[in-house]
Amino acid sequence: MKNFLLLCLLWALTMPTRLWAQTGGGAGFTSWFAVKDNSLVVQTNTKSTPLTKSVVLINGTRLDYQTRTAMLPGGQKVVLREGDTVTLYGEVHQAKESAVASAAPTPATPAPTPTAEAPATAVASAAPVAAAPAPVVKPAPAKTPMTFSFRPAAPVNGKLRGVVELGASGFNSFIVRVDADKNWKLEKSEFGNSLVMENLASEDDIRKGLKTYIGKMLDYGVGGRDIHFVVSSGAVAAEGTQKIIKALRAMNYVVITVTPEREAALGLRAALPAAYADKAFLTDMGSGNTKLAWLETGTVQTADTYGSKYFQKNADPAAVAADVQAKAQQVPAEERATCFIIGGIPYELAKPHRQGTERYTVLKAPADYTSLEGAKAQAGVNIYQAVAKATGCQQFVFDWDANFTIGYLLTLP
Length: 413
Known about the structure:
Largest sheet: 6 strands, mixed
Number of helices: 11
Shape: elongated
């Protein structure tokens, strides 16, 4: 009984003032939050009261009454749907996705009063507000994974191959080791800036830059015939791209151009592990366009939309978000658990969270990046937020190594 009373006192002292006002302020109340009739309410025994303010719960979880979302302490956002409940401790119980929701208290079952026959530990399972809750298994979306433990198979006796990506914002080169089973490992990468989109690169700049990339690959051990050049779909329409193609052809190199659909498929080939083929999709956010790709009955499906430089075309951010959402909603529900995301802006978002040299970094929720400066960064976050909103995906994994041009190398014999 002493432990029970002490826990009640601690709860009362830590509960935010605005939450206290809306729940009646009594430590003996059985209260929780629920989505009812598309509204976020606080349920106190048999009484439902709509929330009129956002609240912060005991573990730091923030409930936004307008968007009906729970922002977890680690930064992850969980969209609450009809029937979902949240305890005052911040535990999210999703009715349709976890059997845990069935254990949540219901209005027809008032909280029992602790007695000699009903010790405090029994009360905890029935009234999580009044005492420490019994251990529960939280649904996956309620967790905030900051690491991604998957590790791809390493190539065995692989061959070195190189590729230069001619993108809308610059030259990027990659050297990978690929074995007969198409297992691959990034050995070396280099990112440059050709200013292709801005058309500020002269033919001499292009020639010198390409020779530099090629020379470094040859010095690293890549054979001349194993160096490939691929023009991204976003750069094909750029005014300076033809200068690059002309310079390469003068050096007797073949240049591969790709459509957005082909680029999306190649990105998926490089970034989607076989173990995630039926439960994940790809977002490749480039400057010129954003590609989405997934597998459906073994067939690659793709969609493309605005890139992170849409502001240069005076596109309305709201219209961009609507288009991105429409395209992202095509991803099958069963494949929305994880999104492998690549591209320039995702790279910038992942940098602050990288713990060392790991290949995968889990991004925080889009809301954690809304204060970024710069038009391109803000545009990228707008796209990221739209994909997250449309799919409900809770785990966006940035791949530091994957690239659609590497996907092209994996298609070669």
